[in-house]
């Protein structure tokens, strides 16, 4: 006797559209919920060494009866009061030292050490004005004018206070003190370039700081919280995907049952 071949059941095309629809629905749900839930953090690290920092100025009271030509004094004093300071972190060349790794008895190689420094700029200096800046720690003196308004401070390991005296420098107001103020430079932050501060926008990771205490624990705590937030976001995405799959499965089952009953009723 010949074995009867089992006739394969033809795929019911009525199920095709609902299945495709469920697939599209699943993809749309996942995309929408991931976009809604997960906003990627901006890990683009700014170049801290090119950031300009403005300094807070502490103005001192001076004799307002400056012995200048009165018309010149009235015309210039507002401009003098607009003078301010900013700085960015740079480097300066230090002494030459022997490079022991690459030197031989016959060929001694030297390299130049580099040190961090603050590149200071005095802004908005008008004509006919000069400034004398005194470093109160090392007593270095810097002469500043509109034509030469930059100077460099190499003392970055501690806060340093500077005194600025601004004088008239024209024939009708020569060497008359018009304004005096102090400013304090911050400390170079030794933690800013460590791994804990990479892609960390916490203010304690800035390349400069006025805090003299150890802030490593504060930075670590901030980093731990950031890692925890990222983990929670990823966990939420997993939950979203799982929930979306369940929703689509439920919809597909409901459609399948509906179509099966409908077909059965049509046959009857």
Summarize the structure.
The chain is 32% helix and 27% strand. With 268 residues, it is an alpha+beta fold.
Structure overview:
The protein folds into 2 domains: 11-45 and 198-268, no CATH class; 48-189. Helix content is 32%, strand content 27%. The protein has 3 helices and 11 strands, in the order αββαβββββββββα. The protein has helices spanning 16-37, 70-80, 216-267, and strands spanning 53-54, 58-60, 84-98, 110-123, 129-135, 141-145, 150-153, 160-168, 177-185, 187-188, 208-209. Strands 2-9-8-5-6 form a 5-stranded antiparallel β-sheet, with no helix packed on it. A 4-stranded antiparallel β-sheet has the order 1-3-4-7, with no helix packed on it. It has a two-stranded antiparallel sheet with strand order 10-11. A hairpin with a 5-residue loop joins strand 5 (129-135) and strand 6. It is elongated and about 110 Å long.
Question: How do the strands and helices of this protein lay out in sequence?
Answer:
Elements: H1 16-37, E1 53-54, E2 58-60, H2 70-80, E3 84-98, E4 110-123, E5 129-135, E6 141-145, E7 150-153, E8 160-168, E9 177-185, E10 187-188, E11 208-209, H3 216-267
Antiparallel strand pairs: 1-3, 2-9, 3-4, 4-7, 5-6, 5-8, 8-9, 10-11
Helix pairs in contact: 1-3
């Amino acid at each position: 006797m010949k074995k009867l071949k089992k006739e394969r059941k033809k795929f019911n095309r009525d199920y095709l559209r609902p299945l495709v629809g469920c697939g599209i629905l699943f993809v749309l749900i996942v995309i929408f919920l991931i976009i809604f839930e997960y906003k990627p953090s901006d890990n683009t690290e700014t170049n801290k060494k090119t950031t300009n920092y403005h300094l807070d100025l502490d103005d001192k009271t001076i004799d307002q009866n400056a012995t200048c030509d009165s018309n010149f004094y009235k015309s210039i004093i507002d401009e003098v009061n607009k003078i301010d300071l900013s700085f960015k972190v740079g480097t300066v060349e230090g002494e030459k030292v022997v490079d022991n790794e690459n030197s031989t008895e016959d060929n001694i190689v030297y390299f130049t050490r580099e040190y961090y420094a603050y590149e200071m700029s005095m802004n908005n200096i008008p004509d006919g004005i000069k400034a004398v800046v005194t470093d109160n720690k090392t007593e270095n003196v810097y002469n500043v004018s509109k034509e030469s308004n930059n100077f460099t401070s190499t003392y970055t390991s501690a806060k340093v206070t500077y005194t600025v005296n601004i004088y008239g420098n024209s024939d009708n107001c020569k060497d008359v003190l018009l304004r005096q103020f102090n400013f304090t430079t911050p400390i170079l932050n030794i933690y800013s370039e460590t791994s804990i501060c990479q892609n960390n926008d916490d203010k304690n990771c800035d390349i400069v700081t006025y805090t003299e205490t150890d802030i490593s624990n504060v930075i670590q705590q901030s980093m731990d919280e950031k890692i925890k937030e990222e983990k929670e976001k990823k966990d939420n995405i997993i939950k979203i995907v799982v929930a979306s799959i369940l929703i689509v499965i439920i919809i597909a089952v409901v459609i399948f049952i509906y179509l099966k009953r409908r077909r059965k009723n049509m046959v009857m």
